[in-house]
Amino acid sequence: MRKLGALFYNEMLKSKKKVSVYIIVIVMTVGMIGCSILIKETNRIVEDINSYHPITDSIQYAETLNLQIRDYEKKLENENLTSEEQNLLKEELYYLKCEYIHYDIYGNYAKENEIGTLSYRYMILGDLVNIRQQQLSIEFYSGDSSSEEYQQLQKQYEELESSLKVNNYQQYIQTKNRQIEEDTSLTDAQKEAQISYNQALLSVCPSGEYASEQEKMNAESLLSEKSNINASLANNVDLNGAGNLTAERRAILEKNLKLVEAKIEKGFLQEDPDNSIGGEAYVLASSLGFVFTVVILIIIAGSMMSHEMSTGTIKSLIIAPVKRWKIYLAKYLSLIATMVLLILYTYGISSLTNGLLFGFSSFGEKVFIVSGNAVTMNYFSYQFLSALCNLVPLFIFATFAYTLSIVTKNTAASVSVSMGLYLGGSFLHLLLESSLSGYAHLLKFLPFSNLSLFGKIFYSSSGTQNIGGVLFGNIANTSSVSLVFSIFYNIIILICMISIGMDHFCRRDIK
Questions:
Q1: Are 197 and 223 in contact (CB under 8 A)?
Q2: How far is CA 324 from the centre of its chain?
Q3: Widest pairwise Cα distance in the chain
Q4: Helix, strand, or coil here: 244?
Q5: Long-range contacts of 378-386 (CB under 8 A, 24+ apart)
Q6: Within a 13 Å sphere around the CA of 428, how many CA atoms are in the beta-carbon half?
Q7: Quick one: which of 4, 194, 352, 492 is 20 to 30 A from 99 by CA?
Q8: Residue 375 CB partners (closer than 8 Å, separation 6+)
Q9: In the prediction, which pLDDT does 497 show?
Q10: What does R_g of the chain's alpha carbons equal in angstroms?
């Protein structure tokens, strides 16, 4: 063991002397920090551009449109216009009036009735706009405001206006539910989902007045998702897809339902960290760091043996009274140690940078599923577990490059093949997936279906592992493959590669 320790220490010293590794680490660090800063600054600029007061701005724009409408009406008074010019002006006037209805109701009407943007009554304005625009369309194309369709629209308008002015949220929900029941274009499952959603909104916020925009958005999003899932499961219909539920899709919906219920229990002020700007910056930075980590490991592993064989420096170790398997193992252990250090460094840079930029407390907690139960965890602890799971694909790629380095004795070949397999792996997986579309059960035997273990252990509908995208060598994740199968699959692959590499190194006649 003492000789093995000495060999391991010697290999770590060799790795420290690689200038190229330090250069890549510096570039990686700058890139990770730069990504987070870029996202934060971009978000700040977008918020500055989009910062406006909906009601005030709508009033101002409605006044501008009103002046344009008057101008067009004056133009139409000109008796010298041809019929073609009149029709063109009337059509343009029609579109101006449609736009005016929108901004007039969201501006002047909202102000007159003291309707805030966080109130349920603000949603009624959209229905009022839609009805008024339909009435305008009837007047423009048929000129008959006494038709049954027009009068039916007027009745709906008056009902909604009554709910709005009385400020009775329960009455509004009842009106909406009745309209849903009478809508013949909806299926029974869709009606059930929408009515259930409306009742859920009424139960969590009886007044219809929310305290903040975030609370309103989260409540509507989570309750809508819960209602859709419940209706899908009850009616065996996939409301988010087409046709009946498959067994696999049902299992996913059941997991998503547990996630949604756990998030609702935490309250509507808690946003999913992965959906926040800080979460997006964190995932992008860590994904970039992961790519550079793979590149560094492939370069080190791909040249670890082949370079020493080509230069002849390996002879100094072989002629010493040390067994070859110890030399092989010492180099492999140094590779693993480097891999762990790089992953921890990537995690540390991502956490520190984004914590300082966005605030450590702003990330909150992450809700996910483990063994069928909803679990809540600090976001940085959650990302640490993600980093540990990323060791699995790193093990595979580093071992593959290390084995190629021994077998080929060619640094360029081992590095280029390993890098190509990593960067093009997702495309290769998609190609094979499309080719084996009729043999879905064979997909689980493809390597890229088993490399990503994080989603199999810590299930979350937000898909943290996939944000890196194919551009960053995204590892394919097939949810139909079980965790146990993937673990044994990876163990077998590692054993095979290690056995081939060690056998080749121990038996080869090195000159």
A1: yes
A2: 47
A3: 110
A4: strand
A5: 379/273, 379/279, 380/351, 380/355, 382/458, 383/282, 383/286, 383/347, 383/350, 383/351, 384/347, 385/454, 385/458, 386/286, 386/454, 386/458, 386/464, 386/465
A6: 12
A7: 194
A8: 367, 368, 369
A9: 92
A10: 32
CA nearest 366: which of 468, 275, 253, 483? 275
φ/ψ (deg, to 5) at 476: -65, 145
- Indicate the DSSP class of residue 246: P
Query: First-to-last CA distance in the chain?
Result: 27
DSSP-assigned beta bridge partners for residue 377: 366
Q: Which two tokens stand for residue 64?
A: 């501008």
Tell me phi and psi for residue 143, to 5 degrees: 70, 15
Separation CA 20–CA 316 (nearest Å)? 24
Return the H-helix or E-strand segment holding 370: strand 365-370
What number of helices (H) and strands (E) belong to the chain? 21, 2
Give the burial class of 437: count Cβ atoms within 10 A of its Cβ; 0-12 exposed, 13-18 middle, 19 or more buried.
exposed
Give the per-residue pLDDT at 268: 64
Helices (H), 167-210: 169-182, 188-204
Task: Spell out the residues 6+ positions from residue 75 whose beta carbon is closer than 8 angstroms to its own.
Answer: 81, 89
Phi, psi for residue 117 in degrees, rounded to 5: -70, -15
Task: Count CB atoms within 10 A of the CB of residue 66.
Answer: 16
CB 67: neighbour CB atoms within 10 A?
A: 10
Q: Which two tokens stand for residue 469?
A: 């995208």
Q: Model pTM?
A: 0.74
Instruction: Return averaged pLDDT per consecutive 10 residues of the chain, 511 residues in all.
Output: 71 74 92 93 77 80 93 87 87 93 93 86 89 90 81 88 82 87 89 92 86 83 90 86 78 88 78 83 91 90 72 55 78 90 94 92 85 86 89 89 87 85 74 66 74 81 45 49 87 92 75 51
Beta-carbon contacts of residue 379 (< 8 Å; ≥ 6 apart): 273, 279, 363, 364, 365, 366
Structure tokens at 227: 């209602």
- What local confidence, expressed as pLDDT, does residue 79 receive? 80
CA dist list (Å): 442 to 436, 437, 446, 474: 7, 9, 7, 21
CA atoms within 13 A on the CB side of 13: 6
Tokens of 279: 């979460």
Measured distance CA(355)–CA(66) in Å, rounded: 49
Record the tokens describing residue 323, joined without a space: 């067994």
Residues in the chain: 511
- Give CA–CA dist 234/261, Å, rounded: 17
Q: Please answer whether residues 432 and 446 qualify as being in contact, where contact means their C-beta atoms are separated by less than 8 angstroms.
A: yes
Beta-bridge partner residues of 375:
368
- Amino acid, single-letter form, for residue 264: I
* CA 180-184-190 angle, 5° bins: 55
Ramachandran region of residue 236, left (φ > 0), alpha (ψ -120 to 50) or beta? left
